[in-house]
Amino acid sequence: MVIKVLDLVGVSRESWQQAAENAVREAALTVDHITGLEVTNMTADVRDGELTSFSANVKVAFAVDANRRKP
User: Rounded to 5 degrees, what are φ and ψ at 23?
Assistant: First the structure.
């Protein structure tokens, strides 16, 4: 088995968890066999002393399909 890893940034106005979930949800639209993720960094925008936007840098791991078409 081979695992590939994508570096992504998810964004949310609600939380870092939702930012990570958004990254996985979007990746799942075009990537099959996602097996896990690692959150590598979390940041937020601040306005008037309030957190206004959350970003989560994530590494999304997915299994390469062994039955994929060969060139």
Answer: -60, -45
Record the pTM: 0.86
- Total of domains in the chain: 1
Structure tokens belonging to residue 18:
């939702």
Q: What is the pLDDT of residue 67?
A: 74
Q: Answer whether 58's CB lies under 8 Å from 9's CB.
A: yes
User: Which residue blocks in 1-71 are alpha helix, DSSP H?
Assistant: 16-28
pLDDT of residue 71: 61
Domain assignment present for 69: no
In a domain, 68, yes or no: no
Nearest to 35 by CA among 3, 1, 10: 3
Enclosing domain of residue 26: 3-63
